[in-house]
Amino acid sequence: MKSIIKYVYTVLILVLISGCYQAKSLDHKKPEKAHQKPEKAHEKREKPHRKLYVKEVEASEAPIKERKTPEEAVIHQVKWKLSNKKVVQAKKQHVLYNVTYGNQGITVVKVPATDTNYFLFSQFPKKDHEKRRYWAINGVYDFSIGEMETDAKGLALPFENFVDGEFLIDDDDKDKVWVFANEKYVITIGKYEIPPLDPEKLNGKPQFLFPLESFSPKDPKRDPILNEGKHYLFTGTKKNPILYYREEGFLIWISGNVSAKAIKKLAASLPKATHLEFPYSK
């Protein structure tokens, strides 16, 4: 069964009218007349290039063997219909990065053939009747690079101009993702309320573990226990830095197609997880 989500975009066309003026030569010489071949009536002028944008996004169900990772789930199940009526599908090079946290994940994709269209997919792992694990998509969020702003409200972003957005992953307001992006970079900040655990089911196991299978390169010697207040930096499957820390009942994570140094600096600028205006400090 296919589900189609349509997006309506308002296109603003700015018409720039330039005033006429007469140029004068500094040495008062009469400027030479340019020898231009007159344009023939039958010659066609090239139409100005118009940026492509997304008109529809369509998600269809793929076989489980093609959904073993968050990245594969998007590549094999999502298609976009563009403004030129072409239908495109993402490949590996269009996936900027993905992040897993708790029992969930997000994948950030740049839409093929477009300059400024990005999509964020929220995902979670499932198992079929044969106990085969695969990833499902439970949310689609689009953000296009349009008019930018400069007020980062206390955030130490690695760029001056950006667009931003806030996405609710669930209806209980316990799982949020903030996106900050420009034409080249996309940064995501997540705030996930760690669910209470049943002491009878712990059996002496740590309360919260990293999803180590989602990181590359895999490091079985790395301590998977997430201690309160300590920052942990990983390298994701797309070589993207992912920083996690646990604070006052929340898991905070930050990632993007930027340097690890930029992610660390951004993390240092965040307020407490319980701050009313999180992730903004001003």
TrEMBL record:
Read off the PROSITE patterns from this record. PROKAR_LIPOPROTEIN
Compositional bias annotation for Basic and acidic residues: 28-46
Region called Disordered, residue ranges: 28-49
Reading the lineage from the top rank, the first entry is Bacteria
UniProt name for this protein: Lipoprotein
In its UniProt entry, the species of origin is given as Marininema halotolerans
